Amino acid sequence: MIDTPIGGSKTAPVSRSGHHSTRKLTLTLGALGVVFGDIGTSPLYAFKVAIDATGNPGPEAVFGVLSLILWALVLVVTAKYLFWILRVDNAGEGGILALAALLRLDRPRGLKPHALALLAVALAGGALLFGDAVLTPAISVLSAVEGLGEITTSLDHLIVPVALVIIVGLFAAQLLGAGRIGKAFGPVMLVWFAMLAISGGIQIARTPQVLEAASPHYALFYLAGHPATAAAICGAVFLAVTGGEALYADLGQFGRRAITNAWIFVAFPALVLNYFGQGALVLSGRAVGSSTFYGLFGGAVLPFAVILATLASIIASQAVITGIASLASQSMRLDFLPSMRIRYFSATNHHDLLAPGVNTLVGVSTALVVLSFGSSDALSNAYGIAVAGAMASTTALYLAYLLQRKGEGVWRGLSVAVTVLFLLLDVAFVAANLGKIEGGGLLPIGLASAVVFLAVSWRVGQMRMAALQEGDEQNLRDYVKASGNRPPTTQRAAVFLVRRGASVPRALAELNELTETRFARTILVSVRTWAIPRVSQDERIQRSEIRPGLARIVVNVGYMQRINLPSLIAAELQSLGVDPDEAVYITGLERPVPPSIFAKPEGLVLSAYAVMARLALRPPDRFMLPPSRTLEVGMPRYL
């Protein structure tokens, strides 16, 4: 189990302040690299796509688009996420699954209809983030590498091959661990944001009238005057806030203060300056080439800008990849997805992990997307709809959380009203992005639908298996009475893994009946995953002795904690007179046998569950049991 170390060497009071300041600066710099990597690379394509959507990039369109982008950043990122949603966390952790856990949606059995609807919203939002993880590296890397064509058109044919090489290398590098390859994220992104601010500021100084676009009336009047293209323009403007969901998802890794400082003092002003600089470039008529972003740079600086943009896009992609690995790990622990192999690279940072299967699937999908679309302009039609849906899902769950809280009087009513306004804003952006469905938007929706189907199939199958197991389990009192005082046939102690709430596991009953094996000591161990990130040390283990030679241990863990079961229960085994290095671990290896796909209405769902169950990580690997002392008792289960 990985926990944050407690204690450490003592320091003098005078150095504590310096250490605290250094830690705050480090966290802020880290947040700049990880949290704002995605939204920080949006200037590569967002303004160009939005101004092209107007159909007539004249002064009216430039002022309208800039005003829309500015106030989207203010309302969605600053107001909604930074000053509103980040106020609610689950023991320090954020993200859509943290909200689902706060709403107790991780155990759907017995949920009321409205709670099941919220569970569907949570699953849809999480699934859309998987789709976003495929599209973000593709559009970020493509838009950066397209700078080669701005240097010279003779390099256009290299854009897709170079993008593919970068993407393949990026996903392969995950095997090294995000912590190792991400140490330079913060400094590189600091240079990137500085370049955004300087390049934009130079153009603003040349055309200062562009600053008038800060007034919101330009956005309102432009949309009102162009109703036919308003939805397309809003859908394009939304590209400027993609990545905003990362503020909440990475809350546990950096904290609210570091994220706030990085946004307010660095990312936000740099983005605004760059967008307004691109607008100034178009207003002045100095824009050349196909990219308004790369048009900000002169000939000598352009190669450097392309290289730095490529590095920034890699960092943006890395942040998304790391986030999806963490989301997949949480989904497995909360039983939304089957257990898969997880590699941990740090003993202190539980976010530094890799889900190899998920990483491979996302990497292959991203490479196929690059090959299929071939340019950031084409991909922009598919990008954004997944993020818009995920943002709306988060806000809806946040609203549900506020509604279930008691008391607080007027403040509660005001909080609900403000959240409803934010939800309406999210719904408006979702509606604006619906026009992208025909041009590629079906891709993220299809990816999300596949993930939702797998999650539902897994949960339905798990509930069916639990019902079958309950029917087979022997009552604990009956087992104790039947076993009586019969002497053990072996002096070894056995640890049986049983599901939470189980009586006597089928594996134990079958060993007793078929082989007449009776152990000197039998310990029934259940692992319970709570809807909180981490369980404290003093609340982790619960033990009870049923009778001499028979005991039960319940291990409580959070959904972000690793489970090294032998290490966790070693002290309890010793107190029971069992040598932890000699105990035998016995698990049930139950093979689900589905009905014919057409035999039952849920035949397809149960068939999908059976396939996932066979591919899922087995308990010995999931709980890090010693292979030489682990026995799996197999048996079929007919669903």
Automatic annotation (TrEMBL):
<feature type="transmembrane region" description="Helical">
    <location>
        <begin position="158"/>
        <end position="177"/>
    </location>
</feature>
<keyword id="KW-0406">Ion transport</keyword>
<feature type="transmembrane region" description="Helical">
    <location>
        <begin position="382"/>
        <end position="402"/>
    </location>
</feature>
<feature type="transmembrane region" description="Helical">
    <location>
        <begin position="25"/>
        <end position="46"/>
    </location>
</feature>
<feature type="transmembrane region" description="Helical">
    <location>
        <begin position="353"/>
        <end position="376"/>
    </location>
</feature>
<feature type="transmembrane region" description="Helical">
    <location>
        <begin position="184"/>
        <end position="205"/>
    </location>
</feature>
<dbReference type="InterPro" id="IPR053951">
    <property type="entry name" value="K_trans_N"/>
</dbReference>
<dbReference type="Pfam" id="PF02705">
    <property type="entry name" value="K_trans"/>
</dbReference>
<feature type="domain" description="K+ potassium transporter C-terminal">
    <location>
        <begin position="493"/>
        <end position="636"/>
    </location>
</feature>
<feature type="transmembrane region" description="Helical">
    <location>
        <begin position="441"/>
        <end position="460"/>
    </location>
</feature>
<keyword id="KW-1003">Cell membrane</keyword>
<keyword id="KW-0813">Transport</keyword>
<keyword id="KW-0630">Potassium</keyword>
<keyword id="KW-0997">Cell inner membrane</keyword>
<protein>
    <recommendedName>
        <fullName>Probable potassium transport system protein Kup</fullName>
    </recommendedName>
</protein>
<dbReference type="GO" id="GO:0015293">
    <property type="term" value="F:symporter activity"/>
</dbReference>
<comment type="similarity">
    <text>Belongs to the HAK/KUP transporter (TC 2.A.72) family.</text>
</comment>
<feature type="transmembrane region" description="Helical">
    <location>
        <begin position="262"/>
        <end position="284"/>
    </location>
</feature>
<feature type="transmembrane region" description="Helical">
    <location>
        <begin position="115"/>
        <end position="138"/>
    </location>
</feature>
<dbReference type="InterPro" id="IPR003855">
    <property type="entry name" value="K+_transporter"/>
</dbReference>
<feature type="transmembrane region" description="Helical">
    <location>
        <begin position="414"/>
        <end position="435"/>
    </location>
</feature>
<dbReference type="GO" id="GO:0005886">
    <property type="term" value="C:plasma membrane"/>
</dbReference>
<feature type="transmembrane region" description="Helical">
    <location>
        <begin position="217"/>
        <end position="241"/>
    </location>
</feature>
<keyword id="KW-0633">Potassium transport</keyword>
<feature type="transmembrane region" description="Helical">
    <location>
        <begin position="304"/>
        <end position="332"/>
    </location>
</feature>
<feature type="transmembrane region" description="Helical">
    <location>
        <begin position="61"/>
        <end position="83"/>
    </location>
</feature>
<comment type="function">
    <text>Transport of potassium into the cell. Likely operates as a K(+):H(+) symporter.</text>
</comment>
<dbReference type="GO" id="GO:0015079">
    <property type="term" value="F:potassium ion transmembrane transporter activity"/>
</dbReference>
<dbReference type="InterPro" id="IPR053952">
    <property type="entry name" value="K_trans_C"/>
</dbReference>
<keyword id="KW-0769">Symport</keyword>
<keyword id="KW-0472">Membrane</keyword>
<keyword id="KW-1133">Transmembrane helix</keyword>
<keyword id="KW-0812">Transmembrane</keyword>
<dbReference type="InterPro" id="IPR023051">
    <property type="entry name" value="Kup"/>
</dbReference>
<dbReference type="Pfam" id="PF22776">
    <property type="entry name" value="K_trans_C"/>
</dbReference>
<feature type="domain" description="K+ potassium transporter integral membrane">
    <location>
        <begin position="27"/>
        <end position="481"/>
    </location>
</feature>
